[in-house]
Amino acid sequence: MPGQCTALARRVPLGLARTGTSGSHFSGDLFLAFSTANPGGLPHARVAELLRAVTE
User: Fold this and answer.
1) Residues 14, 12, 54, 43, CA torsion sign
2) How far apart are the two ends of the chain, measured CA to CA in Å?
3) CA–CA dist 16, 23 (Å, integer)
4) CA-based torsion, 21, 25, 47, 41: positive or negative
5) Model confidence over 14-27: pLDDT tens digits?
6) Cα(40)–Cα(26) distance, integer angstroms
7) What is the chain written as a DSSP string?
8) Which residues, other chains included, contact 26 with Cβ-Cβ below 8 Å and sequence gap of 6+?
9) Residue 8 CB neighbours (<10 A)
10) Angle at alpha carbon of residue 49, lines to 17 and 51, rounded to 5°
11) Distance (Å, rounded) from C-alpha 33 to C-alpha 17?
């Protein structure tokens, strides 16, 4: 699950870029992702949906 949350947090700047805003290591933006799910993570298909939603 930590790897899945990391992947989601790394996609946030892509979603911001679609709105005309930029994000980078030096932009001062901080993106957090956490989960209250049970240990073991989500199925790959569900994570793929979430990754697409973050960039939308």
Assistant:
1) positive
2) 22
3) 7
4) negative
5) 887 888 776 666 76
6) 33
7) -HHHHHHHHHHHHHHHHHTT----TTS---------SPTT---HHHHHHHHHHHH-
8) none
9) 19
10) 35
11) 18
CA–CA dist 18, 35 (Å, integer): 25
Greater model confidence, 27 or 13? 13
Residue with tokens 């957090």: 32
Higher pLDDT: 40 or 51? It is 51
How far, in Å, CA of 56 to CA of 49, rounded?
A: 11
**What is the rounded CA–CA span in Å between residue 56 and residue 42?**
20
